[in-house]
Structures are given as C-alpha cells and as structure tokens.
Amino acid sequence: MEQIRLTWTLDGNSHTYTITPEREIKIGRRLECDVVLPDPSVSRQHAAIYSDDGKFHLRNLSQVNPVNITIKGEDSVLDYNQTTVIEPGNAFHIGPIKIEVIAVETAS
Known about the structure:
By secondary structure, the protein is mainly beta. 0% of the residues lie in helices and 53% in strands. It has no helices and eleven strands. The protein has strands at 4-10, 13-19, 25-28, 35-36, 47-52, 55-60, 67-71, 74-78, 83-86, 91-94, 97-103. The model has no long low-confidence stretch (mean pLDDT 93).
C-alpha cells in the first residue's frame, strides 16, 4: 500500500492527512505533531503511524490514555506502546475524536 489518508471532524470542520511510507507521523495535542488534536483528553504525543514491511502500523505513545480501534467491525484497545496494523476501512479514537482510515487513489 503506497498511501493512506486519515479523515476526521473537529469542531464541525472536516480534516484530512495523507500518509506516505517514507516517514513516521505523530498524532497528539502538541503543535509539533503532524496531526494536531487540540482536546484536553488527547495526550501531547498520543499515537504514531509508520510503515513497515509494506503495511501501516498504529502505535499508542500515551502512557495514560488508550487508543480505541475498530478493525473489521471488532473493537479493541491499544494501551501504551502497543501496535496494530491499520488499513482502509479501519477507524480509531484518540480521545473523543474518531479518525477513519481511507484508501488514496493513485494514478497508474
């Protein structure tokens, strides 16, 4: 998979962020994060997404806040430093914010 896109709504506004395999991205409350979620229940650096072996992985960076994830209709929780593979059709919650993973159409 070459790219994935994250999509979420915050304060009534829709947001997207496209992820490529070249670099890890951070999600959190800090302005230095790639995806900034300014909610008090979001950790400063809450999660990371990176590519390894052709798959994208989501890792929880927060020692106090979980990441709730839905994969193929099954809900689970990622605690500190736990990782799971994500792909289009998955969704996860960081604090109250639901982030959906969608495919990116690439030109052939």
